[in-house]
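Tokens for chain A. Residues wanted.
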């Protein structure tokens, strides 16, 4: 009977294990995670978990019994350090060797680091351990600097501001979330943060000395794909592990899915990596289908969301290449959608507090 080994038990890795069983796979499934926790959701780490509305139990995808009942062997706290593609074995840091027939790489991404010399504590947010550390540091800090005005930095800023902290967001670009949002939405989020007392410094980089004035620094300046394991095994990598439309890497028994996978996206019309739950879950289903002999190409519409205070923004499609756009809704009340068109065809929609538009 064949065996599937999955490296990484985040959104993508856990989904591929679950989908394989749902689709009738009867072989052995081993889900290996370097983290010690049962697999959990990441989005609440900067939202509900940080502001105390969600506990660790609320974050778990499934309880331990689910994995037992479905014969998904969880191997927790075990980092895989090498793949021997010739002998089809992965090697763990503990020296353990695990054989596979099919291997799925769901290794995600890690935070881009900033080299700053400062006297105060500098924290990042990627996993549950980071979030627990950040949550307790926030309780003890009053003056907090957030470096990076992207989604994660701003969600942390919102949680900290709601907890009554003095928050300063430092962004090198001239507007917030500039990589993915149009100016009108950047402006709305800027205004809301300012109304909540957050100081937002645009076009700014502070020196180590200036940063030393804060109690705590939180850095959110993007991520890098965890592709080193794949690259060392000779798999093609370029801004992620290169996969085809079925999530197969340059080795036909190894798949890559989620944040670590570089795929050709039909909506972006180019190769890219997407960092979202939707992408991780949908690519996992495509890989599971292909492992079971059903070749369904990955053509899912990308979507993403962010919650900051009372602003819930949902994005569908890719809004970087359009020749026309239209508004629907009430701009003044922060309840509207922007529809983006190319050659008279809708290519993306951003919906602010208009969930029905997003669903449509
Ligand atoms: P991950 O979930 O990162 O899982 C990869 C796992 O692999 C990790 O646990 C890692 O430790 C493990 N691993 C890596 N290398 C090894 C190894 N060698 N051996 C063993 N294990 C290994 N997305 C949204 O769509 N909406 C949001 O609102 C949103 N908010 C977010 C908020 C935060 C704070 C963060 C961090 C992310 C957020 N995201 C959001 C992004 C989303 O969580 C990711 O896109 C998603 O987790 C990607 O899933 P993945 O399985 O590819 O990677």
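Reply:
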């Amino acid at each position: 009977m064949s065996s599937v080994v999955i490296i990484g038990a985040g959104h993508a890795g856990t989904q591929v294990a679950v989908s394989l069983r749902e689709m009738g796979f009867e072989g052995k499934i081993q889900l290996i995670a370097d983290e010690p926790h049962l697999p959990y959701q990441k989005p609440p780490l900067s939202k509900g978990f940080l502001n105390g509305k969600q506990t660790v139990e609320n974050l778990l995808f499934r309880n331990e019994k689910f994995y037992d009942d479905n014969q998904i062997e969880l191997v927790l706290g075990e980092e895989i350090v090498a793949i021997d593609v010739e002998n089809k074995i992965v090697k763990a840091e503990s020296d353990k060797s695990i054989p596979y027939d099919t291997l799925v790489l769901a290794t995600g991404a890690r935070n881009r680091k900033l080299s700053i010399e400062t006297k105060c504590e500098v924290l990042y947010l990627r996993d549950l351990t980071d979030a627990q550390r950040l949550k307790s540091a926030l309780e003890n800090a009053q003056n907090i600097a957030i470096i990076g005005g992207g989604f994660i930095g701003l969600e942390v800023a919102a949680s900290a501001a709601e907890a009554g902290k003095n928050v300063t967001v430092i962004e090198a670009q001239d507007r917030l979330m500039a990589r993915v949002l149009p100016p009108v939405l950047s402006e709305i989020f800027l205004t809301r943060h300012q109304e909540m007392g957050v100081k937002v410094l645009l076009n700014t980089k502070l020196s180590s000395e200036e940063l030393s004035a804060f109690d705590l620094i939180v850095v959110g300046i993007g991520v890098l794909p965890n592709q080193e394991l794949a690259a060392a095994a000779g798999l093609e990598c370029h801004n992620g592990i290169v996969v085809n439309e079925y999530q197969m890497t340059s080795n036909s028994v190894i798949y890559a899915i989620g944040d670590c996978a570089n795929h050709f996206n039909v909506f972006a019309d180019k190769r890219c990596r997407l960092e979202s739950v939707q992408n991780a879950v949908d690519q996992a289903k495509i890989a599971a289908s292909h492992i079971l002999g059903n070749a369904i190409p990955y053509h899912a519409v990308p979507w993403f969301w962010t919650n900051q205070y009372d602003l819930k923004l949902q994005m569908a499609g890719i809004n970087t290449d359009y020749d026309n756009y239209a508004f629907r809704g009430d701009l003044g009340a922060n309840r509207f959608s922007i529809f983006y068109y190319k050659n008279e065809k809708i290519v993306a929609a951003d919906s602010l507090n208009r969930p029905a538009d997003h669903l449509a």
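Residues 7-13, 32-35, 42-43, 45-46, 79-80, 106-109, 125-126, 152, 226, 229, 258-260, 275-278, 280, 304-306 surround flavin-adenine dinucleotide (CB under 6 Å). The chain has a mean pLDDT of 96.
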